[in-house]
């Protein structure tokens, strides 16, 4: 089977992580995968896999000119490839994929939606209704938002994101990871893996960190060192966050590391992962932390609410509640240990890659059969 995959870019985000995992899996099963994106380090990862080829299209920016250029370039590629199926990730990639492949014989287009701003759902549903044969939502909350905005439920499936379960970090791994990252051996390390943009609310996390420092005073307030907060990612809010950190006098304990490819090392060094977002689908960073036994503090929004007590969920938009959640997890104890164990068990039972791949395989087959396809699996 020839699969054309489209996505805006292949950086460190959760959607990009999922695309890389699926491309590698399809290639391992003997299928031909062609990945079209604006590039990024994950594109370079999959480019070295046999059975996967890559194409650069200017999908990163949502402008009419870039969309037109993407359609022209992708259409020429599709004429050569003759894909049996197109799998697009998010709305812009779906629109471009449908416009580019329709002259190539109109292969079925599957669109996976990873989450959108609330105000974007009505317009998105209009595009998806015209351009996608079927839509996948990565969580029940995303599916509910799509249906509320008018998407036909018969054209919608929920397939949750998935991660590979890895061994929990050992003490030696943590020491080595912290040494590699130039972090002090003592004191907790708090990690936030997210694009530096409005919905992710790193500003709330910096406020919570300032509150934590105020509670510690000289560092002995709660019997532990203040520690280090790592903000990993790039985006339009970087300069504002740097200024917020400086104004709060937190430059000694807060580091903005930019975009990183070494997520495994960062998680090995961390005592807790924090995600203070205003909205989420089902974030891969949280699943990755759960899979390796790193406790999670996250806003009680979107797909995160479905994780139950496997993570510490806090009221969104509240720095004091976020600080309290951080303190609870960093204080440790039996409750935190049990919650972390439940999180690893939940990943194994519900978010395993084998489960996700089987669901997509079945959906691919249904789409191809529905259009008269008869390809080998």
Automatic annotation (TrEMBL):
Molecular function as annotated in GO: glycosyltransferase activity
Record Gene3D superfamilies: Glycogen Phosphorylase B (3.40.50.2000)
Top-rank taxon: Bacteria
Coiled-coil parts of chain: none
Keyword check for Transferase: yes
Enzyme class per UniProt: transferase
Enzyme Commission (EC) number: 2.4.-.-
CDD domains: GT4_GT28_WabH-like
Family: Belongs to the glycosyltransferase group 1 family. Glycosyltransferase 4 subfamily.
Name this polypeptide is given: Glycosyltransferase
Originating species: Nocardioides kribbensis
């Amino acid at each position: 089977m020839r699969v054309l995959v489209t996505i805006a870019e292949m950086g460190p985000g959760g959607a990009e992580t999922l695309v890389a995992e699926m491309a590698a899996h399809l290639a391992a099963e003997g299928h031909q995968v062609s990945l079209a994106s604006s590039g990024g380090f994950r594109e370079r990862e999959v480019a070295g896999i046999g059975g996967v080829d890559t194409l650069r299209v200017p999908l990163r920016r949502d402008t009419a000119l870039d969309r037109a250029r993407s359609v022209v370039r992708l259409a020429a590629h599709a004429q050569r490839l003759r894909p049996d199926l197109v799998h697009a990730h998010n709305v812009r990639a779906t629109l471009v994929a449908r416009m580019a492949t329709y002259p190539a014989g109109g292969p079925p287009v599957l669109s996976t939606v990873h989450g959108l701003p609330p105000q974007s759902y009505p317009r998105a549903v209009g595009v998806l209704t015209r351009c996608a044969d079927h839509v996948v939502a990565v969580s029940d909350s995303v599916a509910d938002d799509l249906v509320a905005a008018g998407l036909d439920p018969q054209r919608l499936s929920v397939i949750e994101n998935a991660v590979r379960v890895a061994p929990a970090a050992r003490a030696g791994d943590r020491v080595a990871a912290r040494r590699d990252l130039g972090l002090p051996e003592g004191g907790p390390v708090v990690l936030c893996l997210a694009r530096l943009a409005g919905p992710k609310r790193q500003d709330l996390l910096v406020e919570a960190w300032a509150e934590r420092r105020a509670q510690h005073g000289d560092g002995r307030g709660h019997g532990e060192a203040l520690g280090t907060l790592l903000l990993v990612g790039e985006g339009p809010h970087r300069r504002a966050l740097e200024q917020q950190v400086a104004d709060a006098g937190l430059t000694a304990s807060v580091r903005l590391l930019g975009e990183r490819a070494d997520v495994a090392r960062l998680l090995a060094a961390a005592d807790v992962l924090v995600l203070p977002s205003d909205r989420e689908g089902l974030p891969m960073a949280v699943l990755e932390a759960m899979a390796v036994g790193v406790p999670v503090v996250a806003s009680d929004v979107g797909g995160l609410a479905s994780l139950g007590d496997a993570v510490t969920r806090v009221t969104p938009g509240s720095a004091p509640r976020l600080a309290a959640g951080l303190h609870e997890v960093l204080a440790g104890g039996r409750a935190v240990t049990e919650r972390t164990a439940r999180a690893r068990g939940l990943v194994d039972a519900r978010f395993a890659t084998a489960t996700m791949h089987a669901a997509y395989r079945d959906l691919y087959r249904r789409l191809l059969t529905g259009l008269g396809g008869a390809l080998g699996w």
